Amino acid sequence: MSRKKASSYTLGEIKQGTPCCVPEPHLQIQDLAVSYSRKTVLSQVSLDIYKGCITALIGPSGCGKTTFLSTLNRLTDHHEGARVSGKILFDGQDLLNDPVDTLKLRRRIGMIFQKPNPFPLSIWRNLELPLKEHGVRDHGLRRRKIEQALKDVGLWDEVFDRLETSALALSGGQQQRLCIARALVLKPEILLMDEPCSALDPLSSAVVEELILRLRDRYTVVIVTHNLAQARRVANYAGFFWMTERVGKLIEFGQCQHLFEAPIHELTAAYISGARG
Ligand SMILES: Nc1ncnc2c1ncn2[C@@H]1O[C@H](COP(=O)(O)OP(=O)(O)OP(=O)(O)O)[C@@H](O)[C@H]1O
Fold first, then answer.
1. Domains in the chain, please, with CATH?
2. Which residues form the ABC transporter domain (predicted)?
3. Mind listing the pLDDT tens digit for each residue in 153-187?
4. Which atom of ligand 1 is nearest to the CA of 248?
5. 36 lines ligand 1 (CB under 6 A)
6. Average pLDDT, stretch 29-45?
7. pTM for the full model?
8. Which residues make beta-bridge pairs with 62?
């Protein structure tokens, strides 16, 4: 990653290491359980997601991390046979039991997927479309928002002279940053990221990881990652999921540094040391 590209970010200084001083819950998850066609895949999950912090979710394949993430903006509504119970408290509302406008909810809680999924349209249209869908009618305002979002993800300098070309012609890392810009353009409060670097080459992955770090303090981020080193580098808080009797459970949650350096549960210790999982 070149220094020039990194310096084109506009999100300010990176702050590393220390967890947020005064953690304030942004999402409160209480006794969450998910089943697919009556088969329970996740149960008894309770934790707070803190405002302005990055929370990393780790654990072996199949223990329910993606399913958990998908409940937070009700994407599970679109999973056939999914049943979700418990409570997810967000801004005075219970997202599972109160009436919720899911379009508005997903504007406030955006999702980034493992594989970059830009629309097969121009770079510009990728960002204009969600703004139009959410009622931003003023062309000048849309232009300013689009430019800012591209600057926020460090893409502006790379694409400003080819905004009308296809987003699919971008590299994988650029596509993923465009997808992050597409979420940021709607000014979300929370970003859910499902293994956002795992489909990228190491250099692109490093650029996206740096971007995630720069989002800290400005957005609440929940990231699922199999890359334990990455979780340690970016997260303030970490949650470790594990399967017990074929059901995913949250085994341990806490400050990232504590979880990695002094885990309380022996399963966490075994997983992060590579002895299990
Ligand atoms: N749409 C679905 N329909 C039925 N079962 C599902 C669905 N999505 C996930 N599952 C099941 O739920 C369980 C948890 O899957 P999930 O993808 O959440 O795990 P994960 O920890 O994110 O795994 P990975 O790290 O491999 O992505 C698995 O047994 C999976 O087969």
1. 25-117+191-273 (3.40.50.300)
2. 27-272
3. 999 999 999 999 999 999 999 999 999 999 999 99
4. 14
5. yes
6. 96
7. 0.90
8. none
